[in-house]
Design brief:
The chain has 87 residues and is an alpha+beta fold. Helix content is 21%, strand content 33%. The chain has two helices and five strands. The radius of gyration is 12 Å and the shape is globular. The termini are far apart.
């Protein structure tokens, strides 16, 4: 499928600071795998949104968008499942 560039929004990096440090390597590994395949089997489209997707990593959700023309995956949020879908 080719390689996509991973871009972290400042909101996502702020979210990482609030996560248990033991979970962070697991989350980073899952996000890096999106560079090779931005639509893995466990991805889901977020209802009510045109381009937002999420992947699940344990109790955490990574909310992202894929821009196929610029070949970029933009990470917007990394949050606990309880708070992941709140605006």
């Amino acid at each position: 499928m080719g390689s996509y560039e991973i871009q972290w929004k400042s909101s996502a990096t702020r979210d990482l600071h609030n996560i248990d440090s033991q979970q962070i390597p697991r989350i980073i590994k899952a996000v890096e795998s999106l560079a090779n395949n931005p639509f893995p089997p466990q991805h889901r489209k977020i209802r009510g949104s045109v381009r937002d997707y999420r992947i699940r990593i344990g109790d955490y959700r990574v909310v992202y968008q894929v821009h196929t023309k610029s070949r970029a995956v933009i990470i917007y949020h990394v949050r606990h499942r309880r708070y992941a879908y709140r605006r």
